[in-house]
Amino acid sequence: xxxxxxxxxxxxxxxxxxxxxxxxxxxxxxxxxxxxxxxxxxxxxxxxxxxxxxxxxxxxxxxxxxxxxxxxxxxxxxxxxxxxxxxxxxxxxxxxxxxxxxxxxxxxxxxxxxxxxxxxxxxxxxxxxxxxxxxxxxxxxxxxxxxxxxxxxxxxxxxxxxxxxxxxxxxxxxxxxxxxxxxxxxxxxxxxxxxx
Length: 196
What we know:
Layout: H1 11-34, H2 41-66, H3 75-93, H4 100-127, H5 178-185
């Protein structure tokens, strides 16, 4: 998914908002139905408002911290955590139940759904990129390839007549040649085990 400017949210931001609210609505409706509570609008609102407020806090955290709308896959984690913790804190302050089994079920359901729909759209977006979007490796923003300036061999390494790929013990100077190599390269004579 592409980021949309904060000043002008588009289709993807609207879709994200609708899906997030739908997730919370379904969660609270299923919860009320499971506990044989009436599905009237006032009862639903009484159950849903703490989680909707937590969801709004999650959106606000993402917007303020990343300067983008929470439509990306990794934004789902922040939205999920804020929805669960904010919702449970507000439920507790309002005198509603926060029993451990309820917290576990809410955490799992909201995690799977708030992160899940983003994961599905992320996978679809990667499989079918927009035609107006530059193609790339699929990670981050796609940039045109960089052309590097050829600098040649400023250290003169190509002039060294060193070992070849076929030379046994490639990269190791035989003890008999160490003095000569040190003199040629202008370095102090290396200490060898034979000197001891």
